[in-house]
Amino acid sequence: MKTLYLRIYLTVVAVLLLFALVSGWLLQRNIEHERIRVEASGNERLIAWGELLQNALPAVDAPRDEQSQALLEWSSRLRMPLALDDAQGRRIATSQAFARWIDGGVGPDGPVPPDELRPPPPEGVEPAPPGRPREARRPRPDDRLPDLVERRPPQRVALSDGRTLWVVRPSMLRPGGRGPDGRLLVPEPPFFMRGVGLLLTLGVLFVAVAGGAYPVVRRLTRRLETLKRGVETFGAGELHHRVDATGRDEIAALATSFNAAATRIESLVQANQSLLANASHELRSPLARLKMALAMLDTTPAERRGALKDEIERNIRELDALVEEVLLASRLDARHPRSRDGVDERVRDPVDVIALAAEEAARVDAVLELPDEADRAAAVPATLLGDERLLRRALRNLLENARRYGGAGAPELQLRRVGEWLELSVSDRGPGVPASQRERIFEPFYRLPGHAEQAGGVGLGLSLVRQIAQHHGGDVHCEPRAGGGSRFVLRLPIAP
After folding, report:
1. Which pairing describes strands 367-369 and 412-418: parallel, antiparallel, or unpaired?
2. Which end of the chain is more exposed for a tag (fewer CB within 10 A), N or C?
3. How many CB atoms are closer than 10 A to CB 296?
4. DSSP H or E segment with residue 40
5. pLDDT tens, 457-493?
6. Rounded distance, CA 306 to CA 290, Å?
7. What Cα–Cα distance (Å) separates residue 102 from each residue in 35, 45, 490?
8. Is residue 443 within 8 Å of 463, Cβ to Cβ?
9. Helices 2-56 & 64-78 angle (0-180, nearest 10)
């Protein structure tokens, strides 16, 4: 059980860890996909800016100073580092922001002020003198110095007139960078997202997952251990022992199935023990009579030995019948697969029930009554699914019981159909069965008071009838008959 516990625990932890790794990988893939999408979108914008600037710049044959001035104006207006080459690759103009970007943020006259990247003042407004900031202007969120962003190589945009436009497009702000006013533009990532901190975070997460999985797995294996101990206790001989089946999960269902199987096994063992005890008791009488007859055989006069031999043969037949019925009862007690309609899978052969009833009725001189041919609702089916040998034994036991205890009148056998059932009723005019005894007479070896030695019998006949009926998906019961006597009704499902 400890091995199972470790296997389940390690499996849960491994699955959770794999889930975390796959989730991280998918997240990284998604981030990479978004980055590629943004890059593609930026490239499309660069091409559009190239077409816009080509239309806005002077023609290719215009003076270089005019082209240079126009490029610098557009670089200031777009707040983007730009450079322009002619068709031969000679540099026409370079904005100071582009030069500072290429040179590490330092131009020929030192750091370039942030006003370079701002649009020029409106018409009619004089720019502020060098070295003096404009009045009443607060720092804006878009005041960014190039050294606050990650440096990327300039991107080349080929213009249709042969010139080449160079553009520097920053990808993202650097973590920890500060603006001109000292504000932290992009905060540093937290400790648990960087380097050793990230490893420590993953370790703590793993420990938390393992710790959270432990009580779940331990509870599962503890219930399995409890079920195992219950099975061992039952196997040690305590057939009354049952396991706890509380809950609604698979383990509770397994415990419920075990309890049902244990109940079935206990009932079978008790039935076999009772059958063995009763059979041993019933064997004593014929064996004692046989022993006495054999002891008297040598001293009995010759003229009486014939009767003594007949007595011995009768006791032997009684012993043979008892053994046969005990064996049959034991076989019927065994559990066999059943179909959905409750019929034992071993008894699925078609049986001519009318012919069988006629043969058994003639054997004991019983009156056979069949439904009127005009009554189609009660018409007896031609065949019935079952075991002919067992059905014959059940019907014979009922008829023999009626002949033995039914008084002077002949037994009556009636067949009729009631819905999807076939009823075989055996009636007699005997003393009847008290209401309190009508179920007990179907117990093995039970006989009504005063019938213990009357007309033979060992008390297994009616018990076998019920077992045979149940193996065919039916049942049998006893009811009083109008005018006196008893009626035993054997109900069997009709073959589809």
Report:
1. parallel
2. C
3. 13
4. helix 2-56
5. 567 788 889 988 988 889 999 999 988 889 999 999 9
6. 15
7. 24, 22, 106
8. yes
9. 140
Stretches where the chain sits below pLDDT 50 are 1, 105-148, 172-173, 177-181, 184-186, 340
DSSP string across 331-376: HHHS---B-TTS-BTT--EEE-HHHHHHHHHHHTTPEEE---TT-G
CA 403 to chain centre: 57
449, two tokens: 């008071």
Q: What is the pLDDT of residues 33-59, one digit of tens each?
A: 887 887 788 778 777 877 888 888 888
Cβ–Cβ < 8 Å for 184, 178: yes
Joined together, the tokens standing for residue 223 give 């219930």
CB atoms within 10 A of CB 325: 24
The helix-helix angle for 195-235 and 250-297 (nearest 10°) equals 20
What the block records as the tokens of 485 is: 């006597």
Percent of the chain at pLDDT > 90 equals: 13
* Start-to-end Cα distance in the chain: 50
| Length of the chain as a residue count | 496
Give which of 454, 450, 457, 423 is closest to 434, Cα–Cα.
450
Domains, in order of start, for the chain = 57-122+142-188 (no CATH), 260-333 (1.10.287), 349-493 (3.30.565.10)
pLDDT for residue 302 = 78
The DSSP bridge partners found for residue 110 are: 107
pLDDT tens-digit readout, 183-225: 544 455 555 555 566 677 777 777 887 777 777 777 777 888 8
**DSSP per residue over 184-195, as a string?**
BSSPPPPGGGSH
Which residue blocks in 163-249 are alpha helix, DSSP H? 195-235
